[in-house]
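Propose amino acids for all 159 sites.
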C-alpha cells in the first residue's frame, strides 16, 4: 500500500465529521509512541510554549544527570540520547524561537559537564553542529531576537 500525499489526506479529512475525525486521530495515536507524544504536545502543551521549553530543559538535565564522565565513549552515548530527546521535542514544537532556546540550553549543559569534548572528534563535531543549527535558525528570526541570542551564542563559541 502506498501513502497518499498530504494534500490528498487534508482534503479527505475536511469531509469527515468530528466523530470520525476523533476516531482517526485516536487510532493514529495508538500505533506509535511518537504519534501519541505529538498529539499530547498539540492538545496539552502547545498553548503554553514557555512551560513546554522548561519541561524539555528538565528532560535534558535528567538525561545528562546520568553522564558517565570517566569514559568519553559512554559520555558520548548519554549526550546523544539527550540530543535525540531535544531534537524530537523541537520537531513537535516547530517554533523557531523554541528551537533556538532548546539548542542553546543543550550546548550550555554540554559545556557545563566539564568534559574535554574537544578531544573527541565525534563530540566536538556534535557540539559544532548544534552551533551551526542555532546560527541557521537564528538568521531566520527577527533582528531583535537575533541580538538577544547573540551574546549567548558567542559564549558557546568560546569553548
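Proposal:
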Amino acid at each position: 500500500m502506498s501513502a497518499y500525499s498530504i494534500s490528498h489526506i487534508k482534503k479527505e479529512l475536511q469531509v469527515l465529521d468530528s466523530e470520525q475525525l476523533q476516531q482517526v486521530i485516536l487510532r493514529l495515536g495508538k500505533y506509535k509512541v511518537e504519534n501519541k507524544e505529538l498529539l499530547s504536545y498539540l492538545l496539552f502543551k502547545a498553548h503554553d510554549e514557555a512551560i513546554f521549553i522548561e519541561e524539555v530543559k528538565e528532560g535534558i538535565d535528567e538525561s545528562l544527570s546520568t553522564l558517565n564522565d570517566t569514559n568519553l565513549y559512554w559520555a558520548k552515548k548519554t549526550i546523544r540520547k539527550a540530543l535525540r530527546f531535544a531534537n524530537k521535542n523541537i520537531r513537535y514544537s516547530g517554533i523557531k524561537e523554541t528551537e533556538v532556546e532548546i539548542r542553546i540550553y543543550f550546548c550550555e549543559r554540554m559545556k557545563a559537564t566539564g568534559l574535554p569534548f574537544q578531544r573527541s572528534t565525534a563530540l566536538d563535531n556534535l557540539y559544532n553542529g548544534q552551533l551551526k543549527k542555532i546560527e541557521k535558525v537564528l538568521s531566520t528570526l527577527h533582528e531583535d531576537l537575533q541580538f538577544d541570542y547573540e551574546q549567548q551564542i558567542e559564549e558557546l563559541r568560546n569553548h
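The helical segments are 6-15, 18-31, 33-45, 49-64, 72-93, 96-112, 121-138, 143-157. The radius of gyration is 19 Å.
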